[in-house]
User: What shape does this take?
Amino acid sequence: MTARTAFVTGGATGIGKALIEKLDREGWRCFAGYNRQSPDALLDVCSDRTTAVKCDVTDDSSVKSALGEIGDNIGGGALDLLVNNAATTGGAGGGVENVDIDRFKALFEVNFWGPIRVTQAALPFIRRSHEGRIINVGSASQYLTIPMGCSYPVTKAALRRLTQALRAEMKPFRIQVACLEPGGVKTPMMDISDEQRAELWGSFPEHLLPEYKAHFKFPGDAIEAAFPLWTAEKFADRVYRDVVQAKRLKPNYLIGPGVWVLPLMKRTMPEAVQERIFARMFQR
Ligand SMILES: NC(=O)c1ccc[n+]([C@@H]2O[C@H](COP(=O)([O-])OP(=O)(O)OC[C@H]3O[C@@H](n4cnc5c(N)ncnc54)[C@H](OP(=O)(O)O)[C@@H]3O)[C@@H](O)[C@H]2O)c1
Assistant: This one.
């Protein structure tokens, strides 16, 4: 039997890397999209079924050339699974009052327009598969209200909505689409650096900074205190079992330690109660 084929963007680190390692171990043929970080550590532990492909999801020509390379490699074959995993949290921290709009747009360029760009380029190959699947990686953070850190969850909430539309559009073509929403996975994204901290507080004009600092915690600290972390390997095993191997993809998979409580809160609690919980989490 020929190996099934996957393309995972942002595959050099974190969840993308762990997922490719898992797929590779399970016999898949993988294309690992990478951007700035070297994919060497990934390639070192994978079989020769895994190939690294340079793919900056914000750049049309990079995406086209990555998919061209994949197309050449698979010949007339199909792409069975696309995981739009590449994303960033950085660069647009701060309050809505002072967020840098160009940086916010840049975040959308990676987290929202990136998956669209890659999906458009990959679909001709996915259409060749009898069991084509697209998994957009959202975030459990979109269930939270995060003062001073709304930019990232807003991009992921938009991606979730987009995924719902894509799922409907792809149904007649038997291409299954889902949103995977991780929460609490130990990856480079979760390592908050002193620079990120300084960047967020530094984004406020001097006259507003003391007031914001008096009212709000650094959002990363509040999230870290509220949720434990899984290893990326544990997360990837769970995704393989519950999502990749699922016969029929559900619209959404929220996976991570303790995150099940978030949609439950949304469903069962009045908004005022949710607001009080988030205020306790993120405010001083
Ligand atoms: N870890 C968590 O708890 C958590 C929670 C919720 C959601 N997620 C989501 O899970 C996915 C994986 O994140 P992670 O936690 O594994 O963090 P990560 O290790 O930082 O992975 C993100 C990857 O995206 C790549 N990337 C960033 N900009 C890119 C661009 N323009 N083009 C192509 N690749 C780009 C990064 O590569 P470069 O650094 O080389 O650019 C990196 O390899 C993301 O969608 C993230 O939003 C993670």
Remarks:
- The beta strands are 5-8, 29-34, 50-54, 81-84, 133-137, 176-182, 185-186, 230-231, 252-255.
